[in-house]
Structures are given as structure tokens and as C-alpha cells.
Amino acid sequence: MRVNKVKRALREGRTVFGTMVNSFRGTAVVQMVANAGFDFLFIDMEHGDYSTETMADIIGACRRCDLAPIVRVSDCQYHLMSRPLDAGAMGLMIPRVETLAQVKQIVKWVKYPPLGVRGSNMSVGHTDFKPEKVKKFNENQNRELLTIIQIESPLAIRNVEKLVAVEGVDAAVMGPNDLSVSSGMPGQTDHPKMIKAVEKVIKACKKHDKFAGTHLGDIEALKMWHDKGMRIITWSGDAAILRDGFLNGMAELRKATG
């Protein structure tokens, strides 16, 4: 049975670094991310166009590369959480969480009894297809799973202290773009009101011994939030990294040959 190295690192006071995939279906990108030294990979089932099979392939590749696979599910529904967990996801991030009732339901769905109601299947990817003792395995899964709620709206900001206080929630990750849109400031992720909102999330996480994080393409902004106490740092994603590489490379070519 596996130890969740990302969850352990956070508990030891360290910062963890990741990126996101939502466009490329091949598993080679997983090896590249692992070789670069990232700790985890967000597999985006909210905005990505992955099938369940592709998601499972990427999860399996992450596990073989010792890279923690964390799936952002598309909605707060049981089957959307159980399938990535059975495929071997070591963490889940649930988007658009706003209420205490949602959080309690999430925890109930992702934990095995007696902590929750997750169904048991011992012949799938989360066991690495090895025989396991059910009781011991379920206890390990309940302990090692990283459960992340995503904070993306003014209502979530208002409720954040109650949300992160729920036992079984490990972290809150900001969705800065969605928060800016839902707050009436599209794209203004550095607006003073936005900064105040994010600081409120960090404060609530610290108070309840949980972990705060964010996902941005701007390294200077990530540094700022790290310095303010964020420990889950997610930079860019597969499509953006490739796009920027092409744009920057073409600009340099034109400059060199012009």
C-alpha cells in the first residue's frame, strides 16, 4: 500500500509543486512532468476532454513514475469521485464548493466506512492490481487520500472557515480566474478585493490546520502567495506550456533571422 508523499510533505511543513493536464492524452507528458521534479499532477476532468479510460491511463502512469495523481472532478457527484479513486487517484479536487452541506457530502462519498460510504472494489488500479486485505487497505485509503475543495465564488469566500473546518477536508485551493469572474472582476486576479479574499482563505486554513493553494501561470504571483503561506503551488498546464513554447520560440527565430 502506498503512502501519499504529497500529503506527508504538507504535514511536515513543506511546499509541494504541481502542474495540470487537460489536453494531451498520451502518457509521455506524465514522464516529462515527473522528470522535471514536480510532486503532483492535476488531471482536469472539469475542463479537459478526457474519457474515463484516458484518465485511468494517466493516473496509472503517474503511479509508475512516483508522481501523485490528483483528479479535478467535473462536479460534486458520487460516481465522478469513485471512478478516479478506484483508478488510483491519490487526491481529488472538487470545484465550485460553496456550502457546508456540500463538503460533508464530499467527505462521506470519498471515505470508506465507518467514516463514509465509498463502495469497495479491490481489483482495480488503486491497489496497483495487487492482493490486499480489505480492512487494512480501506484504513490506508482513508488516511492517505488528499481531499481538496476549490474556492471559486464570493459565497465560498464567506463560508470558507466553516468549509475547511470539516474533518476529512485537507486543503482549499483557489480558482483565481473563476473567483474573479464570479466576483464581477473578470481576469483581475491581482485586484485588492481578490487579494483580500485569498488572504481570508489562507487564514482560515492556518486556523484549522489545513493547507491552502492556488493554480496560476504567473510565477511571480505564485511566489507572492507562497510567501503568504500557500503550500500547494500549481503552475500552468500542458496546453499553455506548449503554446508559450511555440510563441516564444517563433519570436526568437524571427528576431534571430530578421
**Strand segment count:** 8
Structural class: alpha/beta
**CATH class type:** Alpha Beta
Model regions low in confidence, pLDDT < 50 over at least 5 residues: none
* Mean residue pLDDT: 96
Radius of gyration: 18 Å
Number of domains: 1
Shape: globular
Q: Do you know the CATH architecture?
A: Alpha-Beta Barrel
- Tell me about the biggest sheet? 8 strands, parallel, barrel
User: Count of DSSP helices?
Assistant: 11
Strand arrangement, major sheet? 1-2-3-4-5-6-7-8
Q: What distance separates the N and C termini? A: 58 Å
Describe this structure in words.
This protein has 258 residues and is an alpha/beta fold. The chain has one domain: Alpha-Beta Barrel (TIM Barrel). Helices cover 48% and strands 16% of the residues. It contains 11 helices and 8 strands. The chain has an 8-stranded parallel beta barrel with strand order 1-2-3-4-5-6-7-8, surrounded by 9 helices. Helix 7 links the parallel strand 5 and strand 6. The mean pLDDT is 96.
Summarize the structure.
The protein is α/β, with parallel strands linked by helices and 258 residues long.
Task: List key phrases describing it.
258 residues; alpha/beta; TIM Barrel
SSE arrangement:
Blueprint: H1 5-11, E1 16-21, H2 28-36, E2 40-44, H3 52-64, E3 68-72, H4 78-87, E4 91-94, H5 100-110, H6 134-144, E5 146-151, H7 154-164, E6 171-174, H8 176-182, H9 192-207, E7 211-216, H10 219-227, E8 232-237, H11 238-257
Parallel strand pairs: 1-2, 1-8, 2-3, 3-4, 4-5, 5-6, 6-7, 7-8
